Amino acid sequence: MSSILLASAGHIDHGKTALIKALNGFEGDSTDEEKRRGITIDLSFSHLEKDGANIAFIDVPGHENLLKTMISGAFGAQGALLVVSSTEGLKAQSLEHIKILEFLGIKKIILCITKCDIASKEQISHSKSASLAELKKYDFDVLKSFELSIFDSSSIEELRQFLFALRIENTQNSCLPRYYIDRLFNIKGAGLVATGTLLGSSIELGGKLYDYDAGVELGIRSMQVHDKPVNVANNAQRVAINISSPLAHKIKKGDFISKKGNFRGFKELDCVFFGSITHGAEVSLCIGTKSINAKASVLSSKKEGEKNESYFISLKLDKEVFASFDERFVLLGGGALLGGGRVLNPISEPLKKRAKIELLTMLLEHDFLGAFELLKNTHEKGFGLLCAAQRFGILPSSALKIAKELKNAIIDEDELNVYDTSAKESLKDFIRFIISKNELAMFSASSVALKLPWASKMLAQMAIDEMKSELDFENGLYFKKGADFSKLKESLEEGILREIERGELAPLAPYNIYDIFECDRKAGDDALKRLTARGVVVRLEHNLFISAKNLDLAKKRLFELIARDGYADVSNAKDFLNLSRKYTIAYLEALDNDERIEKIENKRVLKS
Asked: How far, rounded to the nearest angstrom, does the alpha carbon of residue 600 sit from its chain's CA centroid?
């Protein structure tokens, strides 16, 4: 089935809702307030279907106070019905809606001159010519213009047949599904249902999605497209999703949904903006079905000669947004339209102003190789490609191909990280620092990578491999050149035992002790195994090791408590030993092994 999504646009009372009703019989103004006031207040959705062709309509309000609602409805549309009354011609909201359509990247326009039954030929001609002249100022593709009356069935049928024959290429496709919730309601027997416009790749019945705003994973129990059950929903379709989640109560209108693990939220966006704005302006960012308060920082104006004045700007937001590269937005100030633009960098980037402007220029031109080069050179500790879909609008595999064209770069294909070659030298210096600070240090590529979150195991191994003149290798571990490995192991055992004993009844976790000696986890675990085998250290639970001497001390004090109170449980033992619940429970359970103790419910007492 071919499917096209069209938004209505135009001034209040120019006949948008009446036109859609004439086309498909759907009454958009359904609430009591809408009927009482005779205007559209909220979004309404309907469709028209014939012989495998489906035309979906989003009817938006035309009132100046409802711009945010209009934007949230139109953002995912592939085209628009621009509705202009023949008796009034273009009005204030007509002009604003035209600008919004351009900012949202909606190029395909069908001009609908309405109320022709009550207008003169001169009025109709003037409204039509003036509207076409206004549209020529923008980069629109006016598909056709119609002179209509809802009381003239032949004019409505002409438009209807044109729509059925219409084909519009999807322009907002992306490598991941993106879905903003515009309505949310509960259906008895089914549960929570969300509706929205699906952009990007398809979603499937039974699949898993993730609500990034709510932090909730959700399943797709069932789906409908235009009131019909489907197994697969595709780009630019209106989709109703019956949500399956034990945390469904957290999901809200406006939430952003996609596949889990591909997006991160940020409170800052770097963008190209078309319109008029001042540095430090307080604005409302309308993106998807969201409206978020923000403060604009003007980074630079662009070259002269553009149709609209344009800027590179940064938007500092009141809350996180999960935006994508090239995503369209509109800015409002005090409820009035300021302009719109595209997100170029959805990831907060710690760059100096000049470098940021250079990066945004490359991203605006889709020069990803240049952008990768700049990021490689400015990020001493590398940058990742796992977020390529959000950051550049391409799959990680495509980003990897671009990265391989870089010069003086190290590419970790497994971890999808890109490093400048200088990062390897920084790692060598770090390893030299480790062995200069602690001659007992024993490490592996994995342990070095754990100490430096920015470094991958592959990069650490590359650095180590180039330090053969400075390091020796034995039993899977590296250590300072010339050191006696057997003596290193003995010294490490002594050091670990010393730290465990120093901790008394609250010893450090093993990984904290390993950090003190700059030793690899394997080396530390092996040393602990030897200590426990000798009986000088006792393992009470996963990360709790205590010296045998201190364990005897803990038991002795618990016997003192039982002598005082007649019993020991978590409550009185915790206070008596002045320890956390974790340690207290471990020592009480160790006490259970003493033949003099019996456990009655949760209390330890002396046997009779």
From this structure: 52
Among 160, 60, 165, residue whose Cα is nearest residue 104: 60
Q: How many residues does the chain have?
A: 608
Q: Tell me, what's the pLDDT at 171?
A: 54
Q: What are the DSSP calls for 62-97, one per residue? A: --GGGHHHHHHHHTT-SEEEEEEETTT-S-HHHHHH
Q: Given a cut of 80, is residue 215 above it in pLDDT?
A: yes
Q: Dump pLDDT digits (tens) for 70-117.
A: 888 788 889 999 999 999 999 988 999 999 999 999 999 999 999 999
Phi and psi, residue 386, nearest 5°? -60, -30
C-alpha–C-alpha distance, residues 529 and 550, integer Å: 18
| Radius of gyration over every alpha carbon of the chain, rounded to an integer in angstroms | 33
The pLDDT confidence band at residue 1, using thresholds 50, 70 and 90, is low
> Residue 237: which residues within 8 A CB-CB, separation 6 or more?
3, 5, 56, 197, 198, 225, 226
Region at 523 (left for phi over 0; alpha for psi -120 to 50; beta for the rest)? alpha
Task: Return the residue matching tokens 């978020």.
Answer: 292
**CB burial string 140-163: b at 16+ within 10 A, e below:** bebeebbbbbbeeeebbeebbeeb
Report the candidate in 348, 344, 345 with the shortest Cα–Cα distance to residue 320. Answer: 348
45 has a pLDDT exceeding 90: no
What pLDDT, on a 0 to 100 scale, did the predictor assign at position 519?
80
Q: How far apart are CA 381 and CA 427, in angstroms?
A: 10
Residue 489 near residue 451 (C-beta atoms within 8 A) = no
Strand, helix or coil for residue 345: strand
Whether the per-residue pLDDT at 522 is higher than 90: the answer is no
